[in-house]
Write a structure and sequence with these properties.
single chain; 186 residues; alpha/beta; Rossmann fold; four-stranded parallel β-sheet; 4 strands; Threonine_Synthase; TrpB-like_PALP; TrpB-like_PALP_sf
Length: 186
């Protein structure tokens, strides 16, 4: 509440030069670009990369796509979403039609009209160009809970719901691309 009050107070904003550090701030995207490059460097591999990104406001995947445009050898991105599936529907139908956001257990991704998507479209110009590098999948709360339980029962690792959706996206991608000889990262 105090942060919102500070942002709405014109005197405080002018004196302190306040700005937000959420994903609509380009400075945050610029910093996220670097970990795509670090990931590539740390893998020491000639294989191309596939990233599965839990996607709500599409800031993280936007940063990855900027890294791709800068020349990083990325084969593909997976935008893994919860039931707020505007972008998966867009990639299937070509129609951008956000519905009201629905609450899920992966609440940081409860966004139906992602503010970073216009940046992505600026880079790729058309849906067909975007579909060459990005797939988008949507997952329910039940699917998310089921994979969290599976990982816990088999590996004793407690996944968060957002990471679980990223993992589900990667699993679906691998099933669809049997000849997958990439470094798959979520």
């Amino acid at each position: 509440i105090l942060v919102k009050q500070a942002f709405s107070d014109e005197q405080i904003r002018e004196k302190l030069f306040l700005t937000s550090a959420n994903s609509i701030n380009i400075a945050r995207l610029l910093s996220q670009i670097f970990y795509y490059f670090m990931c590539y460097k740390l893998l020491h591999s000639n294989k191309k990369l596939v990233f599965s990104i839990p996607s709500g406001n599409y800031g993280n995947i936007c940063a990855g796509l900027i890294a791709f445009k800068m020349g990083l050898p990325i084969k593909h991105f997976i935008a893994a979403t919860n039931i707020n599936d505007t972008i998966p529907r867009l990639l299937k139908t070509g129609i951008y039609n956000p519905y009201p956001s629905q609450e899920t257990i992966s609440n940081a991704m409860d966004i139906s009209d992602p503010s970073n998507f216009s940046r992505i479209m600026y880079m790729f110009k058309t849906i067909n160009n975007l579909k060459k590098i990005v797939s988008a999948y949507t997952f329910t709360d039940k699917e998310t809970i089921d994979i969290i339980k599976y990982i816990w029962n088999n590996y004793k690792y407690m996944m968060d719901p957002h990471g679980a959706i990223g993992f589900l996206g990667l699993i679906k991608f691998i099933k669809n691309y049997k000849n997958n000889n990439f470094n798959n990262i979520f």
